[in-house]
Design a protein that fits this description.
heterodimer, A: alpha/beta, Rossmann fold, 9 helices, B: Rossmann fold, seven-stranded mixed sheet, five-stranded mixed sheet, 12 strands
């Protein structure tokens, strides 16, 4: 299997959101808001754009997904599980002693995790390294690097942005999950990073901004556009909602890194049940 | 053993030519650099193999995480900059390289206070502490240009992350070409039964000079070149303690957190003996020629001689 096209991506995304909420609830810790904001982007990426094969996680010619916002492992592990990289039951071990599924991303654990992350700002550099290696090896592959908008505070992001344009790193695709909230508060109050699109353009990138990060058709169209740009790095800025899919978590800074209470968990699972949103 | 008759050379000069040789032998090298390739000699590789050489400007954090990405694709990756700027990318070394144990070899030149005229900001006296704290890193401080070349080759041929510290000034050539180098193996440069002087980098030459002086006064000092600071050669260290009963550690680094501290910790549990330390006290350096600053910071053969005498005296108590 090189690419998978599930019939109902909406249902898949809802299932992944349920995994996310359950993992963080059962672990009593974890980053739920930024996982839910990125769920649709990753679901579409793995289903329709990324060239990968869960049966061969070491396939040299695979595209790489680089998780730069490494605290959002709930969605990363849930996606990897749904696409066959690990048993879905293993998600219940998230953040527990002896589990492969640490709180923040670790290269190779589980298979399909391409990089170690947690300290923010390193993934774009890592992805650039992959694409430069691909150039040395004559491999035509892509690296999709998922970053947060709060993560744009990190100076290293801009070192990497400058270097990627300088080296004309085609195949390097920055995906920004612009949910507008970081650890302590709204990004606009914490550190102004806007206008992100103009910043990336000024650094020499080809940019598409204003993509609805919860419209699956818009996501697939934007990702395919980014994939097909040749010879230069591309950036897609997705407008997303932190905590998307659970009414009381949406756009609520309290759910950056806090688990839901039992009552909140029950309500979240009701809201995320199949058919609950009328679909 | 004394120094060879070869003209003095800087350990940093070994990097570029060795990498070129290794690439010609077929090693899958990629080299990355942060605007110091002329000084570290890495640029010579770029001139020979431009398709395998990438520069990143004055941006060391990006440099190290890019190196990690390249290594994740199977290449043997050499990154080079100055030692103080390697410190600038500590978390990148920790999270991007050490935690996934990627095949990145960081060769940092201008280590220690012998960097000289540029002053305190350019003098790394804490790099070994930082690099030795990274799980799985091997840390090497070659004493001359021959050993530096051998260390680069050994790092290239040994999987996993390395930190190799080289120096700016020219120094004596101690080894003859083709001398064997083994990661984690200390080298006895001079035999002695009264005291052991354990040194790395530029302090090896000073240790040999000190041993010569001590011999004139009837004290036979063993000189161990502990080029691999991590992992230490424990058997050689324990033999030195058991057979000579007193130890001096000499290094171009802060006393509280470098080779001396590591040796003391290792011996404390197996062969505690009187130990003395010749290193940088709890202070920063200043400008001056390499020799002037080394003297100013007390990194001299005379200090090693005095330390050896103290250690020998303490044995007799």
């Amino acid at each position: 299997m090189v690419t998978q096209t599930p019939v109902d991506l909406h249902a898949l995304a809802r299932r992944i959101r349920r995994h996310v909420v359950r993992m963080v609830f059962e672990a009593k810790s974890g980053h739920i808001g930024g996982s839910l904001s990125a769920t649709d982007i990753l679901t579409v990426l793995y289903a329709s754009v990324l060239r990968h094969d869960p049966q061969r996680p070491d396939w040299p010619a695979r595209d790489r997904f680089v998780m730069s916002k490494g605290h959002c492992t709930p969605v990363q592990y849930a996606v990897l599980a749904e696409f066959g990289y690990l048993p879905v039951e293993e998600l219940a071990t998230f953040r527990r002693a002896g589990s492969r599924l640490q709180g923040h991303s670790v290269l190779g654990r589980p298979p399909g995790a391409e990089n170690s992350a947690g300290s923010l700002g390193m993934g774009l550099s890592f992805g650039l390294g992959i694409q430069l290696a691909a150039r040395v090896q004559g491999l035509d592959i892509h690296s999709y690097v998922l970053m947060g908008d709060g993560e744009q505070d990190e100076g290293q992001v801009w070192e990497a942005a400058m270097a990627a344009a300088h080296h004309r790193a085609g195949g390097l695709v920055a995906l920004i999950d612009r949910n507008g909230i970081q650890n302590d508060d709204f990004t606009a109050k914490t550190m102004s990073t806007e206008p992100l699109d103009e910043k990336y353009r000024a650094f020499g990138w080809t940019v598409r901004a204003g993509v609805d990060g919860h419209d699956l058709d818009a996501i697939v169209e934007a990702l395919r556009w980014a994939r097909d740009v040749r010879g230069q790095p591309t950036c897609v800025i997705f407008d997303t909602i932190k905590g998307k899919g659970v009414s009381f978590m949406q756009s609520n800074p309290a759910f950056h890194g806090a688990p839901p209470t039992p009552e909140q968990f029950e309500q979240a699972m009701r809201e995320l049940a199949d058919g609950a949103d009328g679909s | 053993m004394t120094t060879t008759n070869r003209a003095p050379a800087a350990t940093r000069e070994a990097l570029g030519p060795t990498l070129i040789k290794l690439r010609r032998e077929g090693l899958d090298l990629v080299v990355v650099d942060a605007d110091l390739g002329k000084s570290t000699s890495a640029r010579q590789f770029g001139d020979a193999f431009p398709e395998r050489f990438f520069t990143f400007g004055v941006a060391e954090q990006n440099l190290i995480s890019v190196a990690a990405g390249l290594a994740s694709m199977g290449h043997v990756v050499f990154a080079s900059t100055f030692a103080v700027f390697a410190e600038h990318a500590f978390d990148q070394l920790r999270m991007s390289v050490a935690q996934p144990h990627l095949n990145v070899k960081l060769v940092a030149s201008h280590g220690g206070v012998s960097t000289g005229e540029d002053g305190a900001s350019a003098q790394s006296i804490e790099d070994l502490a930082l690099m030795c704290s990274l799980v799985g890193f091997r840390v090497i401080v070659p004493c001359d240009v021959v050993e530096a070349a051998a260390a680069v080759e050994a790092a290239a041929r040994t999987p996993g992350p390395f930190y190799i510290r080289t120096s700016r000034p020219k120094s004596s050539v101690i080894y003859t070409d083709g001398a064997r180098f083994e990661v984690g193996k200390a080298n006895t440069l001079r035999e002695g039964r009264d005291v052991s002087i354990i040194a790395c980098g530029l302090m090896v030459e000073r240790a040999l000079a000190a041993a010569q002086t001590l011999a004139g006064a009837g004290v036979q000092a063993r000189v161990l070149n502990m080029a691999t600071v991590r992992p230490l050669d424990l058997p050689a260290l324990e033999r030195a303690a058991a057979e000579t009963g007193a130890i001096v550690v000499a290094e171009e680094h802060l006393a509280h957190s470098g080779l001396g501290a590591l040796c003391a910790q290792a011996l404390a549990s197996s062969h505690p003996v009187p130990m003395e330390f010749v290193a940088v006290d709890d202070r920063y350096g200043e400008s001056g020629t390499s020799a002037e600053v080394m003297d100013l910071m007390g990194l001299t053969p005379e200090r090693i001689v005095a330390a050896a005498r103290r250690a020998v005296d303490r044995k007799r108590v």
